[in-house]
Design goal:
alpha+beta, Alpha-Beta Plaits, 3-stranded antiparallel beta sheet, two-stranded antiparallel sheet, 2 helices, globular
Length: 99
């Protein structure tokens, strides 16, 4: 990919999200790896929110399983467009609607 234009994709999840009984973020990373995506990384937030939920921090006792996880990956536009349908399926099936 050194001479190609790169596309950066960011996915926001909760640490409690699952895909077929496994952590969703790990399932996504494994999928991206299996599809030979150029690079991907997961960030575990110490604070944040998703949608209209209240802000959660790692200092809250009741935050267990609700902190955000961010996945970032980069590849060519063509390769990103090839993997996006499966990623959307994985995220939407687990999260339902985004309200």
């Amino acid at each position: 990919m050194p001479n190609a234009m790169a596309v950066l994709v960011t996915i926001y999840l909760n640490e409690s999200d699952k895909w077929q009984g496994r952590a969703l973020h790990m399932a996504i990373l494994n999928y991206l790896h299996d599809e030979n995506v150029f690079a991907a990384c997961t960030f575990h937030a110490v604070a944040g929110f998703l949608g209209r939920q209240r802000v959660k921090t790692s200092h809250l006792v009741d935050a267990g399983g609700k902190l955000p996880i961010v996945i970032v990956f980069v590849d060519t536009d063509e390769h990103v467009n090839r993997v996006l349908p499966k990623l959307k399926e994985m995220v939407v099936l687990e999260q339902g609607n985004l309200d």
